[in-house]
Specification:
This protein is mainly alpha-helical. It is built from 12 helices and no strands.
Length: 282
């Protein structure tokens, strides 16, 4: 990927994260203190259990280096910006979903470099000339994630009416950008895409189903209500595919690492649609 494409991709993600910031308030962070149990379970599911599931899938299926790194990169990028909408449609706990998205958007700044550093050591094994500079990745994440989210929250606080008018257009733009990003990744690796599709399709689907099921079961195990369980399930399974793709092509400089996230980005909406359908009254 050339420098121009990388800049366009980074700017596209910043638009998406700005849109996510428009839906967040400081109250979403305060809710972590007021109602800690559900948030703690959700964060553990996203930040700890999810990468462990990704590692297990990559190891058990004996994937290629590119697919293994792709799985781990995806597992390290929780809290997709569409998870709140899907939670609402599935009749989950929307306040919990928004709170988990808010917390994940901050924590991932520090957890992603750690997960990817360990993943490159485990799966790449110096086979490729790619390294993970934690501080560089943190600075990139601050620029393309935290700053746009913070700007979106500030805009909502200072200009509430303007933010309400801006929210829907930004959501639509985010959806369009997401589709274009997947198309762009597919085109950039078109020569090897079908080869990787055969290998990456199964781990992407396995990761999606396992993360959603595990998030739901953890909530049930700790006696949370069904709406909370639905929220944690969706937050665990709806990954920030655009962030994973951006980091693959910019931070790790390898578009092949983005194939699993691109495939996952399509599959996760299918499984989410199943949950939404099952939650609809008959």
């Amino acid at each position: 990927m050339n420098a121009t494409s990388g800049i366009i991709l980074a700017m596209s993600l910043m638009v998406i994260m700005f849109g996510m910031g428009l839906s967040l308030t400081l109250a979403d962070f305060k809710r972590v203190i007021v109602f800690p149990k559900a948030v703690i379970i959700g964060v553990i599911s996203q930040m700890i259990v999810l990468p462990l599931l990704g590692y297990s899938i990559a190891s058990l299926l004996d994937l290629s280096i590119a697919s293994s790194i792709g799985v781990m990169l995806l597992a390290a990028c929780p809290g997709g910006p569409t998870s709140n909408l899907l939670t609402y449609l599935a009749k989950g706990d929307l306040a919990l979903s928004v709170s988990l998205t808010a917390v994940a958007s901050v924590l991932c700044i520090f957890t992603i470099p750690i997960v990817m550093k360990l993943s490159m050591m485990e799966f790449a094994n110096n086979a490729q000339d790619v390294s993970v500079d934690a501080m560089t990745m943190i600075s990139q994440l601050l620029l393309i994630v935290l700053i746009p989210v913070g700007l979106g929250m500030w805009t909502r606080t200072k200009f509430p009416r303007f933010s309400e008018k801006l929210a829907n257009p930004v959501k639509i733009a985010s959806a369009i950008i997401f589709v274009l990003v997947i198309i762009g990744v597919t085109y950039s690796v078109k020569d090897v895409f079908m080869e990787y599709l055969k290998e990456a399709g199964i781990p992407a689907l396995a990761l999606n189903i396992c993360t959603m099921a595990t998030g739901f079961l953890m909530a049930v195990l700790f006696r949370l209500g069904k709406p909370q369980a639905i929220s944690i399930s969706i937050e665990s399974g709806i990954q920030n595919g655009t962030l994973a793709i951006t980091l693959a092509t910019i931070a790790l400089n390898n578009a092949e690492y983005a194939i699993v996230p691109a495939i996952y980005g399509l599959l996760m909406f299918v499984t989410a649609a199943v949950i939404i359908f099952l939650r609809k009254p008959i």
